[in-house]
Amino acid sequence: AQKITQTQPGMFVQEKEAVTLDCTYDTSDPSYGLFWYKQPSSGEMIFLIYQGSYDQQNATEGRYSLNFQKARKSANLVISASQLGDSAMYFCAMSPTGNQFYFGTGTSLTVIP
Amino acid sequence: KAGVTQTPRYLIKTRGQQVTLSCSPISGHRSVSWYQQTPGQGLQFLFEYFSETQRNKGNFPGRFSGRQFSNSRSEMNVSTLELGDSALYLCASSLGGGGRVLYEQFFGPGTRLTVL
Fold first, then answer.
1. Which of A30, B2, B34, B68 could bond to B74 as cystine, CB 3.0-4.6 Å?
2. Checking phi first, is residue B71 left (phi over 0); if not, alpha (psi -120 to 50) or beta?
3. Interchain contact, A98 vs B102, CB within 8 Å
4. Which residues in chain B touch residue A104, judged by CB atoms under 8 angstroms apart?
5. Sign of CA dihedral A83, A89, A93, A99
6. Conformational region of residue B9, where left means phi above 0, alpha means psi within -120 to 50, and beta covers everything else
7. pLDDT at B100 exceeding the cut of 70
8. pLDDT for the residue B14
9. Nearest C-alpha of chain A: how many angstroms from B57?
10. Mutate which of A45, A51, A64, A108 to test chain B, going by most B C-beta atoms within 10 A?
11. Could B104 and A50 be called an inter-chain contact, meaning their C-beta atoms sit closer than 8 Å?
12. Which residue among B35, B88, B96 sits closest to A99, beta carbon to beta carbon?
């Protein structure tokens, strides 16, 4: 069975500071992908970053980076230089096959000016 | 490239009615997935279609069904609506890879369904 755990229901960060959102996963599949999505109050889900289980290096996309620790089954999202527009729900997701995604319960991030 | 579109954006129905939601994926994407999002249950996977075939199905009752057309557009149908079906229904499309090649899903804006 696949399971994604996000233990932080809510997080606060000062503008321009960095923040780490935690995500752990459980799967017996040797091959899988890890994804992070952002959901603003408008409701749409915005893809942020992807990490493949066989990737040797941590993924980065602009201010987003993924701290991938395979042995610990964790895939934490790091947002650097937080901006007010980063305030949103953040979801971690995993897909072993590419056609079924499993989502965590999300972390609500609030950026304080 | 146009994004994923969903229609309608908002819908109000009463218990016992049925509803059909539509999703048009990004051009070239062959995989369409549907999710139900509620405050209590979070994002729950409904089903996924690829090339007009349902490849995966989540743990939902048979009242929830879907289909995909040859142009990859997809519809989701919920029959005999219940109050608990009130939710944001999200559609996502992807290229639909597999094995060691995985592609991200791109989501539509969602259809907010309210059942009275």
1. B68
2. alpha
3. yes
4. 42
5. negative
6. alpha
7. no
8. 97
9. 9
10. A45
11. yes
12. B96
Of residues A113, A42, A41, the one with CA closest to residue A82: A113
Q: pLDDT (tens digit, 9 = 90+) per residue, A49-95? A: 999 998 889 999 999 999 999 999 999 999 999 999 999 999 999 98
Residue type, B88: L
Q: Sorting pLDDT into bands at 50, 70 and 90, what band is B42?
A: confident
CB within 8 Å of chain B, chain A residues 22-81: 31-33, 35, 37, 42-47, 50, 52, 54
B88: chain A residues, CB-CB within 8 Å: 43
Strand, coil or helix: what is B83? helix
Backbone angles phi, psi at B33, to 5 degrees: -120, 150
B8 close to B108: Cβ distance less than 8 angstroms: no
Q: Name the least confident of A75-79, B22-26, B94-98.
A: B94-98
User: Residue A70 carries which side chain, given as an amino acid letter?
Assistant: K
- Residue B8: asked if its preceding bond is cis (omega within 30°), the reply is yes
User: DSSP assignment, residue B63?
Assistant: T
Token pair in block for residue B2: 């146009």
Contact criterion met (CB below 8 Å) for B27 and B94: no
pLDDT score of B69 more than 80: yes
Nearest beta carbon to residue A97 from set B98, B110, B112:
B98
Query: Is A35:A44 a contact under the CB 8 Å cutoff?
Result: no
